[in-house]
Design goal:
Layout: H1 2-23, E1 31-35, E2 42-45, E3 54-59, H2 64-113, H3 124-138, H4 148-176, E4 201-204, E5 208-211, E6 216-218, E7 224-227, E8 230-233
Antiparallel strand pairs: 1-2, 1-3, 4-5, 5-6, 7-8
Helix pairs in contact: 1-2, 3-4
Pfam families: DUF4124 (PF13511)
Coiled coil: 57-111
Region (Disordered): 221-241
Length: 241
């Protein structure tokens, strides 16, 4: 779509030059200067001056051969002008192509010599930090509250080694905006000590009695038995002491 516009732009000065050359060539080629002696006004013509003015031939009348030579010279000038414009345009296009190619070569060289960004995720430090985090995680016991700082330190070290300083800083900024959840350690249940029950007799024989704990008490007399608090009396086979 741009090619016709370029041709129009290129031919425009050539066409104007041709029009000017043709209009500047009178039929006879004679130029007479006419001067009004009263006003001093000067006019030019290719014929006779008006009445009351004095004429002076600036350019003599030329022959048909001379006029034809001038016309051909004008056409030749137009042709040379056209050739010069085409040559200038071709040279400008060629220079633009050379500049673009040089710029492409410079960009390719700069890209080839530029330092490549470090791949932290494939580094030996990242692999070592990963193994350390796995080791810390595998050695945690059931109660991880006391071991939480150790696990967090291993996690942050792995983030630094695998993301690099810039990536780690961005991750820390994101962590700072998140609410921190603190897990309280579980409380140990407090059990009240059992209230000791006083023993009571479960059954008696001829020589001893047995309480609910299996302790034996020798019989000291009918219905009377020694106990922790002294002598007890049997009440329907149960006599706590």
């Amino acid at each position: 779509m741009t090619q016709p516009h370029r041709l129009i732009t290129l031919w425009k000065p050539v066409a104007l030059l041709a029009i000017a050359a043709c209009s500047a060539l009178p039929a006879s080629g004679q130029v007479v200067r006419c001067t009004d002696p009263k006003t001093g006004q000067v006019t030019y013509t290719d014929g006779k001056c008006a009445a009351g003015t004095t004429g002076h031939e600036v350019e003599a009348k030329r022959s048909a051969e001379e006029i034809e030579q001038d016309r051909k010279a004008a056409e030749r000038a137009i042709e040379l002008k056209q050739q010069r414009l085409l040559a200038e345009k071709a040279a400008a296009d060629l220079q633009a192509q050379r500049d673009a190619e040089q710029e492409r070569v410079r960009a390719a060289r700069a890209a080839a010599t530029a330092p490549q960004p470090q791949d932290y995720a494939r580094s030996a430090e990242c692999a070592r930090s990963r193994r350390n985090l796995e080791l810390v995680s595998s050695t945690l016991s059931g109660n991880t509250y006391d071991q939480e700082p150790r696990l967090e330190a291993a996690q942050r070290q792995m983030d630094l080694d695998c993301l690099g300083p810039q990536g780690y800083a961005e991750l820390e900024r994101a962590r700072a905006t998140q609410p921190r959840i603190v897990v309280a350690p579980p409380r140990q249940p407090v059990y009240a000590p059992p209230v000791p029950q006083k023993p009571y007799l479960t059954h008696c024989g001829n020589f001893h009695c047995v309480d609910n704990t299996g302790a034996r008490y020798p019989r000291a007399g009918p219905g009377r038995f020694p106990g922790n608090d002294g002598v007890c009396r049997s009440k329907r086979g149960q006599a706590p002491c």
